[in-house]
Specification:
Blueprint lengths: L4 E12 L2 E12 L3 E5 L6 H8 L7 E6 L2 E2 L5 H7 E4 L11 H6 L14 H13 L15 H14 L4 E5 L7 H18 L2 E5 L3 H6 L3 E6 L2 E6 L1 H4 L2 H8 L1 E7 L6 E8 L2 H5 L2
Parallel strand pairs: 3-8, 3-9, 6-7, 7-8
Antiparallel strand pairs: 1-2, 1-4, 4-5, 9-10, 11-12
Helix pairs in contact: 4-5
């Protein structure tokens, strides 16, 4: 920890309308860190990320981005600091991959809205990093789910921000492309100091590609720390409902869980 938080949530309550997902949630994210939010379905991890990303407003409390209330900052100013890869994407079907990725330069264009040389360079680099060179003139509606996910990742990368938020970024990707994307994210963190916050379902991916895991259940943080401390049989049993073994992956050195069986309520009743 550097003691320099880029995100700080103070007592936020999150939710949609009258449906409250979490209450009084406080956490900080340090500059240059890699943080994964994990938890069972409905635990509040994606809602928390959306609130941090300003996609939804907190019902109470405040989110601070680089020391300023994120909901009081101009959209363009926020977009220069932070990029978000959301879980659900909405875009005109006829838009091409290149046209989509170009949208990532919106926060940086001048008064006339014209792309400059540095914008073109950023767009081409994002396309190269996501291996979309052969798709630039394809319309979004002709792409597979995995190809669309990579196109949206390229849009986020084209913003060239110091913070990257990803909500289940491996959705629709086969295992090879999952690893490609997570390696890319780790390289951005290592080589450029990009702060990463992501929601992941795969606990082994979270443990391998994060410095810190925040486990949530019922809208509350139930564990927070290095993967080797968070990924434990007790947590998997109590909050994920599975019996599992946890060991160290000899190749990566990260903790790895092997689930064996679900825990049913009737089992608990007899223990």
């Amino acid at each position: 920890m550097t003691g320099n938080p880029v995100f700080l949530t103070e007592g936020i309550s999150t939710g949609y309308g009258r449906h409250v997902v979490s209450k009084h949630l406080s956490l900080s994210v340090e500059k240059g860190s890699r943080t994964s939010l994990v938890g069972p379905n409905g635990s509040g991890k994606s809602t928390t990320l959306k609130t941090m990303a300003r996609l939804i407003e907190p019902l109470a409390g405040a989110v601070y981005l680089n020391g300023q209330d994120i909901n009081r900052q101009p959209t363009r100013h926020v977009a220069r600091q932070m990029a978000i890869l959301p879980q659900v994407h909405e875009v005109p079907a006829e838009l091409t991959v290149l046209e989509l990725v170009e949208q990532g330069r919106f926060p940086h264009v001048g008064a006339l809205g014209m792309l400059r040389r540095q914008d073109d360079d950023a767009i081409q680099e994002a396309i190269r990093l996501t291996r979309l060179e052969d798709f630039v003139h394809r319309s979004i509606d002709t792409l597979s789910g995995g190809e669309r996910q990579r196109a949206w990742m390229a849009l986020a990368l084209a913003q060239q921000t110091e913070i990257l938020l990803l909500d289940e970024p491996t959705t629709f990707l086969d295992v090879g492309h999952q690893l490609d994307l997570l390696e890319l994210v780790s390289n951005l963190n290592r080589d450029r100091g990009v702060t990463i916050v992501m929601v992941l379902h795969d606990l082994n991916h979270a443990a391998r590609f994060s410095d810190r895991m925040i486990a949530m259940s019922g809208g509350e943080i139930v564990a927070d720390g290095p993967p080797a401390e968070v990924l434990a049989p007790g947590l998997l049993r109590d909050y994920f409902g599975v019996e599992a073994a946890v060991m160290t992956d000899e190749k990566t050195g990260s903790p790895m869980c092997i689930p064996y069986a679900p825990i049913h309520s009737d089992q608990d009743d007899h223990e």
